[in-house]
Input
Amino acid sequence: MCPRFLSQIYLYFHHRKFRARAREARSFAGRRIISIGNLSMGGTGKTPLVEMLAREALKRGHRPMVVLRGYKGSTSGLVTDGQNVKMAFAEAGDEAMLFTQTPGLRVAVGRDRASVIDQFGGDSTLIFLDDAFQNPSVKRQVDLVLIDASIPENKFRVFPCGKFREGLEALSRASAVVLTRADSKTAPEWKSRIQASFPRLRVFESTHEFAGLRPVLDRGPSASRPVTASAFCGIGNPGAFFRMLESSGVKVQARCEFADHYAYAEKDLLMLRKRGGPWITTAKDAVRLRHFPDEYLQAIWIADMRLRITVGSKDLIDLVFD
Output
């Protein structure tokens, strides 16, 4: 049993750091700043939401940029100018590299987000701050907070006793909440609790939908897609990924979980090969596999997924872009 005072100590220092950052917060005139963040330590589906909003921004004629902290927070730079990729996965991280697959989207990484915007913002008119709810160093017009509704509401625990960075009271700073995996049985509990505490806070709902399988190595449209396979991933909520595969009709015969943002080594792929295939993984994991020789990747498939807003789609778009 984790003593509650450990969470209280953690929150004390977190709030002190947050207030110090807020006092130094920078504004950027002429740019619309949108923060997409979590209360939890990842696993909510933030990346597909940012991708969806970025594509909508491009469609509306904006010049968007995504700003991330970056892989382990040690690198600062322009990942892509929207056309040419200028960093490798080891420098930018898996999430940043995923965003480079959206043509026209500028992507930059760095711990000091204000400096990143100064240096690499160029003519970007709309900035998406990825995972910035706990970092107020850049003033924003919209603060979206994602909550994974598949986690039972009664398991809400703040670090180090759980995987949440802040208590639910932090939603007083939010513009709106997006419940992800809102098709889960526990979603109504989350919605009720949020609306009881923050009756004026808008709550949108979304689901992660299976969008098909494709091989890591492009073998053309004739490639035979597996119906029975094993699955592996190194993401924040592996159980949700495995359940999505099964609900899409894929018979998952074995599962292998790695840590979130896991850096795969040759021994890991040798282990997967030894256990047979085919294997299915996420697009985010596939980014971390690209540097391996083709022989290691022949039996690996990518499960594409998309986020769909099921409740409040138009209102969410209006909030972000108006």
Residues 17 and 111 are 15 Å apart (CA to CA). The two ends are 47 Å apart (CA to CA).
